């Protein structure tokens, strides 16, 4: 579904991704772990098409199409969702307005009818309930005044409503207490655990992977994938740390 080959990218003239190669099949939840500064968020931004990130080599193919050739909104319409390490606040725009607009623009790009206000609210209620998010929160401005945990839950509601084919989730677990972590993890399972979908789950911690069990685990270090294994690799990293595991396996 997602084939990343020899990808290199820089920001402000500084090379961050260095020949990164990674494949995610349909039905796969692939965890990416790695030291701080390794380039994990950069990978997420490059996949999302964030301005300022310059691809200097390699390719990314999504469902057979050249992802890097698409604008960010085309990537979203093609089924790619990006969850941020630090979700942005949008004063003056309610969650409901924002999500209905986003969903309907994606539907339009796919040649589908837009949802009416009533249809959209029904869908939003269903997804908010699934993630134990108060409907009142959906009426508030996007992320404004939300706690860290509420922002992450809100992001899961966005994902539930947009129902993407592929999600790149960057440290969705950061700043979550144990209960919120379970809710968010189960949200990821409910929305994305599907033979036709794929997930790149960027995380530092085994505790999220206890809830969202990955099919594969890769280590990203110094801008490239240095090792791929099964769930046991995450357990070893948790116990021994990156340096020890990478040295042992080198
Ligand atoms: P990770 O998410 O793995 O912790 P990042 O992708 O956020 O790592 O960052 C990778 C490297 O890129 C870090 O060394 C970081 O300091 C650097 N970096 C990020 N943004 C910029 C920027 N605007 N200019 C220069 N270096 C940057
Ligand atoms: Mg980091
Ligand atoms: Mg990061």
TrEMBL record:
The keyword ATP-binding applies. Belongs to the ABC transporter superfamily. Ycf16 family. PANTHER family: ABC TRANSPORTER I FAMILY MEMBER 6, CHLOROPLASTIC. CDD domains: ABC_FeS_Assembly. Residues 2-247 form the ABC transporter domain. Pfam families: ABC_tran (PF00005). The keyword Nucleotide-binding applies. This is Fe-S cluster assembly ATPase SufC. The lineage of its organism: Bacteria, Pseudomonadati, Pseudomonadota, Alphaproteobacteria, Sphingomonadales. Coiled coil: none annotated. Keywords: ATP-binding, Nucleotide-binding.
């Amino acid at each position: 579904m997602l084939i990343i080959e020899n990808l290199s990218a820089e920001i402000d003239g500084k090379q961050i991704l260095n020949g990164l190669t990674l494949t995610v099949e349909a039905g796969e939840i692939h965890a990416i772990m790695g030291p701080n500064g390794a380039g994990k968020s950069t990978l997420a931004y490059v996949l999302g098409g964030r301005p300022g990130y310059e691809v200097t080599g390699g390719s990314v193919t999504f469902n057979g199409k050249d992802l890097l050739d698409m604008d960010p909104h085309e990537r979203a319409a093609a089924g790619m969702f990006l969850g941020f390490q630090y979700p942005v606040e949008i004063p003056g725009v309610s969650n409901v307005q924002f999500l209905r607009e986003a969903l309907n623009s994606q539907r339009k790009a796919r040649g589908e009818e837009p949802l009416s206000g009533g249809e959209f609210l029904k869908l939003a209620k269903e997804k908010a309930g699934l993630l134990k998010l108060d409907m009142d929160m959906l009426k508030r401005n996007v992320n404004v005044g939300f706690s860290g945990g509420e922002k992450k839950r809100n992001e899961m509601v966005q994902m539930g409503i947009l129902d993407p084919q592929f999600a790149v989730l960057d440290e969705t677990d950061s700043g979550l207490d144990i209960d919120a972590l379970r809710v968010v993890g189960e949200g990821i399972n409910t929305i994305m655990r599907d033979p036709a979908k794929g997930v790149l789950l960027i995380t530092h911690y085994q505790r999220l992977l206890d809830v969202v069990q990955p099919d594969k685990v890769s280590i990203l270090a110094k801008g490239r994938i240095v090792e791929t294994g099964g769930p046991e690799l995450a357990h070893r990293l948790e116990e021994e740390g990156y340096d020890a595991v990478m040295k042992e396996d080198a």
